[in-house]
Amino acid sequence: MNSYKDYNIILINIDGFRKDKIDYCPTLKSLKENSYYFSKMNTVAPYTFASLHSVFTGMYPSKHGVNGYYNIFEFKKDFITTLPEILKKSGYYTSCDIISEVVIPKQGFDEWNIFDEKSVNFVTRHTELIKKLSKKEKFFLFLHYTEVHKHLVREIIQKDNEELNDNFFESKEENHKRLDSYLPDCDSYVKAIQSSLKEFDIDDKTILIFFADHGTSIGEKEGEKFYGVFTYDYTINVFSIFHIPNSIPKIIEKQCRTIDLFPTIRELIGHVPSENLEEIQGESLIPLIDDPNAKNRDVFVETGGLYGPWPSPHKHNVFCVKFDDHKLIYNDTPQTWEFYDLQNDPDENNNLYNPNSIKIKRYKERLLFYLNQNKIDTNLRS
């Protein structure tokens, strides 16, 4: 693949967007069909704080420190080089617009913007920001789009304070319709971003990347009304769309991870690392684009919910490893196991866990590898 060292880069997180809703958004669907589309990308943590810190570091949460809702200030900033720091050293003007100063690492940004979610007009605000940056020689811009997420918080979390055994889990069709009602605004936003690149005459020299940090429950599993509690595919199997000017569109159906975004962007700009970057755990996605024989990548996910059957906001306590179309889940607090055949049971309804299975023992070994690599203390290690 060519070097794009002189191209602008716009990285946009559609917070909480479900992959199965892309085709309900005509503009986003068209962008998907005319770009590199990673259909089997997985988040390494199904909630925003841990997920986005992993995107900006290329590391798993327990490696970079943000490994719990209450650990948002535990980022190991003195020991980690972030993506914006690398881009800044490579001549990029770096900017962001986010909902809160704790959502992503601050290191490496020339410009740091925070919006008021209650009053923000994302289309106006973000197109104006792109207009301003279009005058720079080259820039990196991270945009946090939270409109869909905001409505879901209001309608599901803030409005409904009843116990988790209410009718939410028996109302999947209604939950789908509620979510669908927020999609037109999201699609209009995507269209406005694309139009602004053309209007400001930078569309032919800008790499545009859309991704989801996690998915959202519509009531699939008892105990999870939103996200961050479990590691089922409706929240961990997300997506990424890379629109690179003059590139031939391609659907990449190889399993990959959100920690792979960092090394991919680094490779696109031809960055030769001078920093100590051996701690990066992600791998560039470019081999998955260029090599038809490239292999699927292991997926390891960690989380600890604010609510649910075993809340753990101080320390992750739910883990999974996923490869070869199967997934092993370990719930540390009750010390229970789940094993799913994702090809034949994509909704993860039939738990096939058998402690005597040779196949499952192989998955356990792989899970233990990631727990040890990231120095995660669980009951398995005690």
From TrEMBL:
<feature type="domain" description="Sulfatase N-terminal">
    <location>
        <begin position="16"/>
        <end position="270"/>
    </location>
</feature>
<dbReference type="GO" id="GO:0004065">
    <property type="term" value="F:arylsulfatase activity"/>
</dbReference>
<dbReference type="Pfam" id="PF00884">
    <property type="entry name" value="Sulfatase"/>
</dbReference>
<dbReference type="InterPro" id="IPR000917">
    <property type="entry name" value="Sulfatase_N"/>
</dbReference>
<comment type="similarity">
    <text>Belongs to the sulfatase family.</text>
</comment>
<dbReference type="InterPro" id="IPR050738">
    <property type="entry name" value="Sulfatase"/>
</dbReference>
<dbReference type="InterPro" id="IPR017850">
    <property type="entry name" value="Alkaline_phosphatase_core_sf"/>
</dbReference>
<protein>
    <recommendedName>
        <fullName>Sulfatase N-terminal domain-containing protein</fullName>
    </recommendedName>
</protein>
